[in-house]
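Before the break, one more example. Copy the sequence into your notebook; we will annotate it together after we see the structure.
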Amino acid sequence: MKKALIFIAGALLLTACFPIQATQSEDEINTRVAQVLTSFPTATPAPTFPPTYTPVPPTETPLPSPTATLEPSATPLLALPTMGSTLNATQALAATQTAAVAVATATFTPNPTYAAGDPRSTLGNPTWSDTMEDARNWPIGVNEYTSIAFSNGELALTTLSNVSGWRLAGTISLNSVYIEQTGKMATCASNDSYGIIFRVPILADSNKGYLFGIQCDGQYYLKSYDATRTPDTIVIVQPTASAAIVAGSAKTNRIGVWLKGNTIKLYANGILLQQLTDSTFATGYLGVFVRKGVTDGLTARITEMDYWILP
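Here is what the structure looks like once it is written out:
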C-alpha cells in the first residue's frame, strides 16, 4: 500500500514538474520517474531519548554536635608495639596478646567468694577496721618482748624473746563480737606462730587473756594466759592440724574468733575449725601476738584487723 501511494505521488509530481512529451516511450518515462524518486533525501527517524532520570540524594548521617562531649573510655587503650628492625611480626603479636591479657586482668575484678558459714559473708561491714596504714590504733616503740613498725600497709611485729609477745589495739572492751585478722609470717618454720590475743580484761596491764594462734606447720591452738596464776599458761586446744590453714613462710591466712558468752568459735580462712566453751575471761580488749618456736627474730606481718559487734 505504501509503495502504491509513493508511486502515485511521484507520478503527480512528475506531471507537475516535468511534462511528459508525447515522443517519449513508456520505458523512458519509467526510468525518468525512478531517477527523480532516487534524488529525494531519505527521511531521518526522530531521535529516541532515554527516560528522564531524577538522581536520589544519598542518605546523610548527621555529624555530632560541635558541643557534644565524648566520654573517655573506662578501659585504657592498648599501646601496640611499633614494627621495626628490633621487633618482628611474631614478637609484635605476642606483645599485643600479652598486653590484652594484662588489660583484661586489670579491668576484671571478681567478687570475693566465701566458704559456707564464713562469718564475713553474713555480717556486712565491720564495726571497726584497721588496714594498718599507720600506728593510730597501736602503741609503738620497742619493749623487752617485741618491736613494732608500720610500712606499706603492714603492721610488722617482731619477737625479741622466747615467749609470746603482743600489742593491744586501742579499742573498746568487747564481749559478743567476731574478730578477724589477716596476716602472715615473713620467714618461719615448725611451731613458729602468731595470731589474735583477745578478751584482755585490763588494757593497761595486758597480763591476761586468750591467745588463738596458727603455726608455720599449719596447726592451730588456743591458750589462756594469766600472769597472776600458776601455771600462767593453760592450753585449751592442743596444736591441731587443719587443711584450712595455708602452711609455710609468707603464706597469708585470715583467722577469726567468734565470741558470745562462754561460746568460742575458731575460724581459718572462713572455715570453722572448732567450737568450744570456756569461762576464763568474759570480756576484754584485742590485739596481735607473735611467738618464736625456732626462728630468731620471727616477724608477723598483719595487713588488716576487723571486728563486728554481734546482736
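The mean pLDDT is 79. The chain has three helices and 15 strands. Try to locate both features in your own notes.
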